[in-house]
Amino acid sequence: MEYPKVLDEIKLSYENILQKNLVGIYVHGSIAFGCFRWEKSDIDFLVVTRQEPSDSQKQEMIRALLALDRAGLCPPKGFEMSVVLAEHCRDFVYPTPYTLHYSSTYRRQCQEDLPGFCQRMRGTDRDLAAHFTVLQAAGFALYGAPVQEAFGPVPRQCYLDSILGDAKDAQKGMSEDPVYYILNLCRVLAYQREGKILSKKDGGLWGLTALSDRDRPVVRAALSAYGGGEPLDLDPDRLREFSAYLLGQIFPSFSEKL
Q1: Could you tell me which residues come within 8 angstroms of residue 8 by beta carbon, excluding any fewer than 6 positions away?
Q2: SS3 state at 4
Q3: pTM score, two decimals?
Q4: Which of 127, 125, 76, 78 is nearest to 100 (CA)?
Q5: Which end of the chain is more exposed for a tag (fewer CB within 10 A), N or C?
Q6: CA distance between the termini of the chain
Q7: 3-class DSSP state for residue 27?
Q8: SS3 of 160-209
Q9: Alpha-carbon gap, residue 190 to 204, rounded angstroms
Q10: Mean of the pLDDT values across residues 79-99?
Q11: What is the DSSP letter of 54?
């Protein structure tokens, strides 16, 4: 199944579940940037409601995603979904409160104890600053008011804190998911230097022009793997050197702001 059909299924399900409480459904991530690949990407979306959904509504929302998963109708990486209140979209709060979150990371927990998961899964999330920013730069409304009507501005410092928090994990995460962290470090550095809000792919393409001859082969290999080419096969020491160099480029300029 292609992702537009999956989005249509989500839209129909969530309209039925939330009814008048639903303000909008908003798509961000790789779909918004135009670089979605079924084999590599997840489907990222935000659900905006007037009031916090009831426990039964939360359970039905996740059951709808689990049903798509069981039927083989979603990409292998699944979904990433957060439910946020309209008031926190219009008047941004950081860290941003959410009333429900789901991704494939929590699939087993939801299968084993969905009521308990829905009761626990609420709080604040710094990543939402990045999601809101990407949404306003490239995303779209699957249902509801246009993005610029539903979402107020995200302060630059909040977006920076959000993406830098992710970048800090690069040294540890490079061995587990090197393609993600190589391209992510490039897009963070692109924002630092030029204020560009980019996808991972576009971050890598930026790195091919902005980084040194020594670092470009690492980025080129990551882009090839991300695009479905040969799996990334780089020396671990080289990966550590690459991440250490980019982290050194990123953090000195922002150390006083963090």
Answers
A1: none
A2: helix
A3: 0.92
A4: 125
A5: C
A6: 43
A7: strand
A8: HHHHHHHHCCHHHHCCCCHHHHHHHHHHHHHHHHHCCCCCHHHHHHHHHH
A9: 10
A10: 98
A11: P
